[in-house]
Fold:
Amino acid sequence: MTVIAHISDLHFGSLQPGAPQALLQCLGELEPSLVIVSGDLTQRACPGQFLGVRRFLDKLRWPRLVLPGNHDMPLHRPVLRVSDPLRDFHRYVTPKDSPYLLNGGLAVLCLDTTNPWRWKGGGAPRQKLERLERRLSQLPAGATRLLVTHHPAFAQEGERQQAWQARVAEVARRFEVRLALSGHFHHTVIRPWDQQRLLVVEAGTATSNRLRGEPNAFNVLTLGVDRVNVAAYHLSQGVFAPALGRSFTWDDGAWLEQGPLPVAG
Structure:
């Protein structure tokens, strides 16, 4: 079994008091195989906030993949946002904005969707998609492919699909990506997509006080052979605990839901 802790939208500089400590405590109890941080590490992409992020990340003793979000580009420094938008992210966090990991039968690929010309919105320029395609094409047959973005790359039903999302969706179909993780909207979402060929999981904000109708939250994915359980952990009274969850099995090219997972309380 592989246990992935999916955290997103930390927003250092706009923190919920006690949330980072509660998150570290919960992760220590879970002992995940991998921690994925899907963007928006800071509130305003200033060096002091990135230093806080650096100190937090240094306390994560597990393998991790970290990618940037739109808040990790400077909003009020337009020249820097255009000339070198991820300068401080690369300086303080990681030089890689689209990292990837191949571990046994699991391949985790990150796609940086930040766009300096559309600070809040996302995008996937051709060179980034081409790099993603190359990596996907080089994976061994049978590897479970998991794609991570900051902005959701797969529009919800009833939403208008943006052009960059359509390009990502085409790549995902062609290379049989099975799982997709993202953040950005501060809401937990767990839903099959594209005739159930892809399972989309979006995370709430793990540590920010910028709540949007949902407590601070992060996701835990437990992957087995042709099976995945997804549990959302919510912060309540200073402690993260599982609040909702769903279980799926992979059968004949589709994710079939097996029912809700038991949760605390």
Notes: Residues 181 and 242 are 18 Å apart (CA to CA). The radius of gyration is 17 Å.
